[in-house]
Amino acid sequence: MNDSVVVRAEAVSRQYGEGAQLVHALDLVDLMVTAGEFVSLAGPSGSGKSTLLNLIGGLDRPTHGSIWVGDQCLSEKTAGQLADLRLHKIGFVFQAYNLLPVLSARENVEFVMQLQGVPARERQQRADQMLDAVGLSSLAHRRPGDMSGGQQQRVAVARALVTRPLLLLADEPSANLDSETTESLLALLRDMNTRFATTIITATHDPIVMRYAKRHVHLKDGHIVADDAAA
Amino acid sequence: MNTPIAMIARLGLRNLMRYRRRNSMLCLAVAIGMGTLLFAGSFLRGWEFSMRADAIDAFVGDLKVTTDNYLRDPVAEHGFTVPENVTESLATGGVRWTTRLLLPVAIQSERETRGVTLAGIDPADEQHLSFMGKMTIEGRPLTAANDSGLLLGKELARRLGTAAGKRVVISVQDAAGHNREFGYRVIGLFDAEGTGMEQAFALVGRENLKQLIEAPSLSTELSLRLNGEADIALWRARLRADLPDLKVSRWEELQPQIAELIGFSNSAIYIWYAVLLTALAFGIANTFISAVLERTRELGLMQVLGMKRSLIVLQVVIESMWIMVAGLVLGVLLGLAAVWYFHDGIDLSQWAQGAEMFGLRAVMVPQLLRTDVEQAVFLMLALGFVASLYPAWRAVRLNGLEALRGRT
C-alpha cells in the first residue's frame, strides 16, 4: 500500500435491519484519501455520509468490504484494537461538541493525551499550545457549560488535533454554529490542515464547509455519485 | 497525575459533585446503614460481653482446676490440695488467682430449708476475680478468709424468710463423707444484679469453713483470671504439666450454654450484616445504574475517543467507591457517636425481668470492637464494588456511537 494513502475503502457496504426492513446505507463504496487532503462528504440526509465516516473511524463495521486506515485493516481488529487505533491515529469532532462537562477546556484537551500516557508536563504544554492555536488560551480554565457553542467546538477541535492524529473526522461540525462562527472554525481547520498536513474528512451538507474543503465527494442513496479526485 | 487511573479518580470525584443531591442521598443512606450496622452490632457485642463477664465472674475464672470427680459430683470428698510449687509459681507469675471451697449444702432458716452452694472464699482475692468485686451489700461484708459470718443473696434471704442479723443452720458433708451442721449468723445480704448468683450462693470465709469441716488444706477449685488467649493457653499447659491428675478447664467448658449463646450471638451479627447489606446492595446498584444511564453520552464519548473498556469499568467502579468511602467514613463516625452517647449504658430496667432471662443486665453497655468496624467497612466496600459491577457492565455494553446520539 502506498505510504501516502491514509484511508482506503474497498467495496464497502453497510446494511441495517432484515427482510422488508433492510436498509442499504452504503452500497459497494470505494474511496481512497491520501495524506494532507481536506475532503468533504456531502449529500442529502440518508445518503450515507455519516455512515461512511463512522466506518472509517472504526465506530461501526461494514457488512461487506474492507476499510484501511494507514496500514491497518479495520475489519481484522477487535473492539479493543479499534479503540487503540482511534486513540492514537484518529481525531473526532462532532456536531454536538461532546466535551466532558466536569473538565475545564484545558483538561478536555489533555484528556486523550492522558489516555495515551503522555507525561504531565508535556501534556500541559501541548494543550496550552493547541488552545492558543484555536484562540482560546484565555478560556483554558473554563468548563464547557460556561462557553459558547463556537468556543466549545474550538475546544473539540483542539482536543482532536492535539495528539497530531493521522486523520481528523468531523461529523457535521458546523451544524450548531452560526455562519460567522462556522467560517472561523473552518479557517482554523484549513489552517491545521495546511500547517500540520492533517488529513481531514468531514461529513456535511453545509456549503460553507464544502467551500473550505479541497476535495468534494457526493453521496446519494449509499453510492458515491461524484468525486473531484476522479474528475 | 499522569496515569489514566488518576484522571479517572479525578473525573469520578468531579462527577460526585456534579450530581450532588443524588450522591448525597446515597452517601447518607450508606452512612446510616453503616452507623446502624455498627450500633446494632455493638449492642449484640455488649450482650455477649456481659454474658461472658457474668459467666467468668460466677466463681469460674478463665481457667479452673478441679478433680474430674468434682465436676460430676461436687462434694468435699472430691476436693484436692494445691501443691506448694504451684502456689509459688502462681504467686510469682503475675496472675490473679485464688482457691475456693464450693460445697452443696442445705440451709435452714426459721421458716424454710433450701439447697444452695456454700462458697468458702477469701474476700480479698475475690475483689478482682469474681462478681464479689461488683456486688452491693446490705449489712457487713466478709472482711477476711477466716471471717465467721455468712453473706446471703438478697433473693435467697427473701425465699428463706430471713434477714441480716438472724441465724441459719447449714448442713454439709465433710471430706470423710460425714454430715455436719453449723450455725451461722447472717451478717449481710448481697445484691449481684442480673447474675442469678444471689439465689444460688451463700458466702463464708474460706479458712473458717475449712476449720469447721476439719480439712485445713482442702480446696475444691483453683481459679485464675488471665489477660488474653495467649496467657490462657500458657497457663493451661503449665498447670496441666504441674497437676497431671487434675482437670484444667476453660470457662467455655464449664459454662457451655453461655459459650453456645455467645456463638449464636456471633452468628446473629453476621446474619444482621447480611440482611442489611442485601437491602443496601439493591439501593446502591439501582442508584449506580441511574448514574450510568444519565451519562450515557459521556461514556459513549469516552469509548469513541479510544478509552479502553477496562478503564470505563474502572471509571464506574471508582465513582461508586468514592461514594462508598465517603458514606463509610460518615457511617463509622455516626456509629462511634451512637456508641459514645450510650457509653454509660442503655437502661433496660423497664424490661429487667425479661432481659435477665436473656442474660442481659439492667444496664447494657454497647461494645464496639475494632475488628467489627474493620469487618463492616470491608464488607461494605466489597458490597459497593459488587453493586457497581452491574452498572459498569451496562456502561461497557453501550455502543459508543449509539450512546453519543443519546441512545442506550
Query: Strand pairing plus helix content of chain B: what structural class?
Result: alpha+beta
For the largest beta-sheet of chain A, the strand count, sense and barrel status come to: 6 strands, mixed
Silhouette of chain A:
globular
Mean pLDDT metric of chain A: 90
Number-wise, the strands of chain A total: 10
Contiguous runs where pLDDT drops below 50 for at least 5 residues of chain B? none
Q: In one word, what is the shape of chain B?
A: elongated
What's the topology here?
The complex is a heterodimer of chains A (231) and B (408).
Chain A: E1 5-16, E2 23-34, E3 38-42, H1 49-56, E4 64-69, E5 72-73, H2 79-89, E6 90-93, H3 105-116, H4 120-133, H5 149-161, E7 167-171, H6 179-196, E8 199-204, H7 207-212, E9 215-220, E10 223-227
Parallel strand pairs in A: 3-8, 3-9, 6-7, 7-8
Antiparallel strand pairs in A: 1-2, 1-4, 4-5, 9-10
Chain B: H1 4-18, H2 20-57, E1 63-66, H3 68-72, H4 84-92, E2 96-108, E3 113-121, H5 123-126, E4 136-139, E5 150-153, H6 154-160, E6 167-173, E7 179-191, H7 197-200, E8 201-205, H8 206-212, E9 221-225, H9 228-242, E10 247-250, H10 251-254, H11 256-294, H12 296-304, H13 309-341, E11 346-347, H14 352-357, E12 363-364, H15 370-397, H16 400-404
Parallel strand pairs in B: 3-8, 5-7
Antiparallel strand pairs in B: 1-9, 1-10, 2-3, 2-6, 2-9, 4-7, 5-8, 6-7, 11-12
Helix pairs in contact in B: 1-13, 2-11, 2-13, 2-15, 11-15, 13-15
